[in-house]
Amino acid sequence: MIISVASGKGGTGKTAIATSLPFIIENSIYVDMDAEEPNGHIILRPKIEKEENFCMPVPYIDAEKCTYCGKCAQNCKYGAIAIIKKNKKRMFFKKLCHSCGVCSFVCPKNAIIEKDEIKGVIRYGKAGKGFSFMDASLNVGEASSTRMLSYINKKIVGEFKEKNIIIDTAPGTACPVVEALKESDFALLVAEPTLFSLNDLKLLIELIEKMEKPFGIVVNKAEKGNSIIQDYAEDQSINIAGEIPFSLELAQHYSEGKPVIEYGFEDELKKIIESIKIIRSENERNTCIKR
Amino acid sequence: MKEILVLSGKGGTGKTTLALNLLKKFTNKTIADVDVDAADMFIILEPDIMLKEKFYSNGEAKIDYSLCNSCGICMKHCRFSAISFNACDRQIQINENNCEVCGLCELTCPNKAISIKESEAGEMFVSQTKEGDFIHARLYPGSENSGKLVEKVKSAAKKKAENNGAEYLMEDGAPGIGCPVISSLVGIDYVIIVTEPTLSGVHDLKRLKKLLDHFNIKYGIVINKADINEKITANLEVFCKENSVTLLEKMNYSKCIVDSLNQKKYAYDECENFRQKINNIYKKVVKITAN
């Protein structure tokens, strides 16, 4: 089973919950796909066994062959190349390059060659009582983690397909989150009882419904008397997979980089797993009935 | 006119809360929300939308099956694993989730069967609010090119600010360090980094700092929820001293602030301690940006 832990709004507790789940799910691997700001390693303190540089091809223009025809710039969909023929000026905006290969394909003089450059690092290891760990870290200054995350997805459905996979996602609803949801069997959405979280949750649910993934909500930092998330879920017939109560002590514990499950709430976390199984099987039944 | 941006690295540290409440002090200003895939400022600002503008991204690649002969040349060239042969339907198909709309397939198809069509990816809003003119946007969930939409919002906000003779343009940023954050840095005079005294917060702060140093951008730090972990707060204060980084203010966690937001009120009006902190941050930022 592949569970992606997402939220929309940052800071609701994705990593807090995602890093506790591998302690109670057998044969699991925790995968940190928030490559811009990966935090899983801080909480899980893994023993790293392997590190892999993630590279992408970056175009280089051979000055001697280039005639400033501008075909590369005209065809680049990302505005990464600018050619001014009159002034014999050539500018390459590396940060905008998507390594698609169009420029080298269209160059009539074969003046563009591509060289691999390191964009980030992927690490593999073990954590806790021996569950597996993987994280991706985008080099600071690089614009996009999408290709690196796509590569990790290949590992998930290939090398790690026999494992239960817990994916920790980035905040927001853009490409890195889409990538982290692509292979999942279930999206666990972590919300907190605030207006901002509810707003971003709705945006994320729009995405998840578009991707046709079964999902459920965990209300983190839950408080009596504040049921804005639960009310919304009831109104939309969305399953609440669980609740973790608000606790300043837990916040302090977690601030030290310690897993939530070490503090407590094991019952609440186990209930989340049970709910995921129930929601998934209900979802499968409904899909069969539709057919 | 000075452009000020609020960032954090880690999500959930209090960017939007701070940006909103600073508006109470910066009187002659224009406001922009550049967290385009999870914009939240509008919830408190309650904007009167004066103008809506659609945002188009690269779009999608479409196959004209009357011209396609399934030669598969496009598949061989595609670097994003977005093209495959569907054995059931017996035709080449493009997976829009993987497609990055680079256009290489359009260029390589010998039958000119593929064309790239622009598609709607979001919307920008220019509004009036009680606090001033406000520009924000909504990137449709899952859409690409958030960086481009950030650029559009900033450009419209800058124009509005200049037309209004505003002294400040206050921008609420996105979490992370990727393309939407990098785009938001263009033209910025000062970044206010909101961090929290947790190991995750400090880790992400350091990555953001590296990004800002790389782009030579001036910044100061606000430690939010400082009392969650006094040891880490103290370490952050030392970090600021050792790196000659301005510590703008330290603020404690306060239920008053959370409750105010949930009631769509400004904590500046409701919470006395917080009000003093906002006043201090305002004075320092005005002084620093005046030079």
Fold and architecture overview:
Chain A is an alpha/beta fold and 291 residues long. Chain A has 12 helices and 11 strands. Chain A has helices at 14-18, 21-24, 40-44, 71-75, 102-106, 146-157, 175-181, 195-210, 228-235, 248-255, 260-263, 266-290; strands at 2-6, 28-32, 47-61, 81-84, 89-92, 112-127, 131-138, 164-168, 186-191, 215-222, 240-245. In chain A, helix 6 (146-157) runs parallel beside helix 7 (175-181). In chain B, a hairpin with a 4-residue loop joins strand 4 (83-86) and strand 5. Chain B is elongated. Chain B starts with a strand and ends with a helix. A 9-stranded mixed sheet of chain B has the order 3-6-7-2-8-1-9-10-11, sandwiched between helices. Chain B is built from 11 helices and 11 strands. Chain B is 37% helix and 27% strand. Chains A and B meet through helix 5, helix 6, helix 7, helix 8 and helix 10 of A and helix 4, helix 6, helix 7 and helix 9 of B.
Give the gist of this structure.
The complex is a heterodimer of chains A (291) and B (291). Chain A is α/β, with parallel strands linked by helices and 291 residues long.
